[in-house]
Each structure stands twice: as C-alpha cells, then as structure tokens.
Amino acid sequence: MSLNGIDIGDSQAYMDVKSIDGDFVIIKATQSNYYKTKAYENQLKSAQQGTKEIGFYHFFDPNVGVESQADYFLNVIGNNANNHVLALDFEDDPQDGIYVQNMNAVVKAKQWLDYVYSQTGIKPLLYTGLSIENNFDWTAIVHAGYPLWVAQYNSLTEPVNGFAPRELFGCQYNAGETVIYNSKVVADGYTWLKYLGTSGEPRYVAIVD
What is the pTM of this model? Predict the structure, then answer.
C-alpha cells in the first residue's frame, strides 16, 4: 500500500491543509533550539479538522546542542508526539548558516534520533536529499532501524550508495519528471513501477497523481 502526502512549513502558511488532497501531512514544528514555525498552530488545527494522518518534523542544526534541539521539538509538539510520525529534516540551509554535509553532523543526527526515540518510543524518520544520502556513511543509523524519507528528484536508476540497505518510507518526485522502470504491476489498488535497485533486487514505487 502507498500513501500520498506532503510536508509543510512557513512557506505554505496560507494553505488550507484540511481541504487539499492526500492521505497525510507532516508539519514543520521547529528548527534548531529557538525557532517554532510561525504557521505551526494554524496548520495543525486545520489538519486536525480533516481526515489526514498527521506527522511532525524538526529542521536540524549541527551548530547547536542535540538534546536542546530535541527537547525544544518535543516541548513544542507536546502530547501530539504520541502515535504520530516524527521526522528529522537533515539538509543544508545556507541562509541560516546550516551545513550538514560532514560526518560529524551525521553522528549528531543519530544522537537526535536516539534521544527522541528514548523520550517517545517512536523511531523518527530521517529526511534528506539524494546527494547527502550518497556522500556519507549511514551504517549506524541503518542498523538502528531509522527509516529513510528521501527527496529523490531524479531517475530511479541514479546510483544510491549511501543509506543501505535502502528500505524507504517514501520518495518525492516533481510532476513531469522522467522515471526509468522495468515494468508496471497492479496491486493493493495502485499501479506500481518496478525497477532494479542497486543491489540487483526488484523495487517498487507507486504512481500517485
């Protein structure tokens, strides 16, 4: 089964979350240990008025203490952490001086994931882009069982050599992009594109309009 959803933050402040198509929405709650998304309360209220599954994410800042960031995130979402998807957004933000493309940042990301898991009993997702995924050693995070949510805006055949074994929570693609695949399979109410992963094993991704 595949679900169709979106992640939102201040850039989508005026979106009527409850009315848009989709099965889930993951809301940006915090960044670093000082910034709460301005649209958070309104976006959460709108999402709760609809039928979508709701999740929450934190934008990681490697320049700031890991636990202080995690505590800030958990304090903002409060009891909403119970039985919801939680995620760590791990990417650069040059405007705020955030650069995560080094192994020290990867180590800190795992510390954040471990801490949030210890406080909630929920294993958060790691969200990142394909270039970051490919450039670092994710062994410790993989072995700990944290799922990957990757922004893979490219052909499914582009090499993936970082986060392995690569069992995805989800991928994101832009409308109109070309996806190379081997065949189509219809199952669970969806049409799936079948392709070969880097291990040579077949992989599947659902087609969702």
Answer: 0.75
